[in-house]
Automatic annotation (TrEMBL):
It is found in: Cell envelope. Signal peptide: none annotated. Transmembrane segments: none annotated. This is C-type cytochrome biogenesis protein CcmI. Pfam families: TPR_8 (PF13181), TPR_CcmH_CycH (PF23914). The gene is ccmI. It comes from the Bacteria.
Length: 469
């Protein structure tokens, strides 16, 4: 009842507000007519003065007067019509307004829903989100998953599903965060802890960070987790410890069932590293297939080029005209690798990255292609830098290397918690034959991380053997 009282009062008020301009007097509208009549009176006086002074004849004066009177009469008639219009028809106006209000109320009574509860904006937005999700919109479905996980933060399955969903659409940072929530709820489930560490790697552009390596090291020690062993070897490869990476991957391969899903990935990376360092794959993988042996060849002289210059030129020309073809860029990179031109292959993939900078899924595919082609593990200096270094004398090269190592040592003085930096410094000193400096750097790093057991274990595994020779 109260609702109808309110709605009726509102309708009447709205009707009066609409009718008010038609009901009130409008004296200001006649001001223009009064001004025109005043002008005509002045003109008639002017005609009388001109006739009295002899400027015009009596006939001319009479004709001018008649014309002025005719115009004044026309204005007077307009004045009368304006007065009638200004007074209007108040009863008709009120009647029309009342009819409009009544019709509006009748339509709402028939078509509206006065008994429906209030629907806030948030609820309407939620309905729209559900509709989009039911229509197959993946991001809307993921947003609903996120809401469910936030509303029930102890729901492990919700966090895992949300993390996997974010990974599917290339939102790796959000996937990492969701896996982190799941890992905090499942501290005794190694598969979730391992997935969390892998998500950290994915969110870090596939680089194994110190945080991820520490998690993988713990999983390898406590649960002998295959994924952990894989990424620990990948971390060594990314730190250019290729021999250590090969040992780790071959060990993982020997201990795995041949049908295990990670076996193809491990074999691919072994082939990539063998090509990078120019090793004979048959000595590393006695059961290497002919295709793997061919892919591991590092010198074009060892066999004919798999792709002709014409194939490369044709594809490059086509991509120059239609660059929005990421599969084409990946194929071009493969052709360059087959022709022993890794720098050109990297350039092709980098061009594809620029074209698809805002497409996470495609960027992921490009990164996977870079890994598969063996281009990610050996990101050394570009051709210009190699050419510049080739022009230096041996003494100048040694000095350049010394400066780089000294710069790393200086940076570690300011940022001593950089575990990767200490490992690199120890390895650099050992490679240069500066055993005492390597031992001192290792000793300092042990002191820095003496209260961090996980970092200590990582340090000993990555650099301990280098100072015990």
């Amino acid at each position: 009842m109260m609702f109808w009282i309110v709605i009726t009062t509102t309708a009447i008020a709205a009707g009066f507000w609409i009718a008010w301009p038609f009901l009130r007097a409008k004296p200001g509208e006649l001001s223009g007519v009064d001004g025109a009549l005043s002008i005509y009176r002045d003109q008639m006086k002017e005609v009388d003065r001109d006739r009295a002074s002899g400027l015009i004849s009596a006939t001319e004066a009479e004709a001018a007067t008649l014309e002025i009177e005719r115009r004044a009469l026309h204005v007077s008639r307009q004045n009368e019509r304006a007065l009638v219009a200004s007074r209007g028809a108040p009863m008709a106006t009120l009647g029309l307004t009342a009819v409009t209000a009544i019709l509006g109320l009748a339509l709402y009574a028939g078509l509206g829903a006065p008994g429906a509860p209030d629907q806030p904006l948030a609820a309407r937005a939620d309905d729209i989100l559900h509709q989009k999700a039911e229509a197959g919109d993946l991001r809307s479905s993921i947003q609903l998953l996120a809401q469910k996980a936030e509303q029930d933060p102890e729901n492990l399955d919700a966090w895992v599903l949300l993390a996997q969903s974010y990974a599917v659409i290339g939102e790796y940072a959000k996937s990492r965060d969701a896996y982190g929530k799941a890992a905090s709820l499942a501290t005794d489930q190694p598969e979730i802890q391992s997935a969390y560490a892998e998500a950290i790697v994915s969110a870090n552009n596939d680089v194994v960070s110190a945080e991820a390596r520490e998690l993988f090291l713990q999983l390898a020690q406590d649960f002998n987790d295959p994924r952990a062993h894989y990424y620990l070897s990948l971390a060594k490869a990314q730190a250019q410890d290729y021999q250590g990476a090969l040992v780790g991957w071959v060990t993982l391969l020997d201990s795995s069932d041949p049908s295990a899903p990670w076996v193809p990935l491990v074999r691919r990376d072994i082939v990539d590293v063998a090509r990078t360092i120019g090793a004979d794959l048959r000595q590393i993988l006695p059961d290497a297939t002919p295709a793997e042996i061919k892919a591991a060849q590092n010198n074009v002289a060892s066999g004919p080029a798999l792709s002709s210059a014409a194939d490369i030129a044709n594809l490059a020309n086509r991509l120059a005209k239609t660059p929005r073809d990421f599969k084409g860029w990946i194929e071009l990179a493969r052709l360059y690798v087959d022709s022993n031109d890794p720098d050109a292959a990297r350039d092709a993939l980098n061009t594809a990255r620029v074209e698809y900078a805002n497409a996470p899924f495609v960027s992921r595919k490009i990164d996977e292609a870079e890994q598969a082609l063996g281009l990610a593990l050996n990101k050394g200096p570009d051709a210009a830098a190699v050419a510049a270094m080739s022009e230096l004398s041996q003494g100048e090269r040694d000095q350049m290397i010394d400066d780089m190592v000294a710069g790393l040592a200086d940076r570690l003085q300011d940022d001593p918690m950089d575990l990767d930096g200490w490992v690199m410094l120890v390895r650099s000193y050992a490679t240069l034959g500066r055993d005492e400096q390597a031992k001192q750097a290792y000793k300092t790093a042990l002191t820095v991380f003496e209260t961090d057991t996980v970092s200590l274990a990582t340090l000993k595994e990555a650099a301990g053997q280098l100072v015990q020779r």
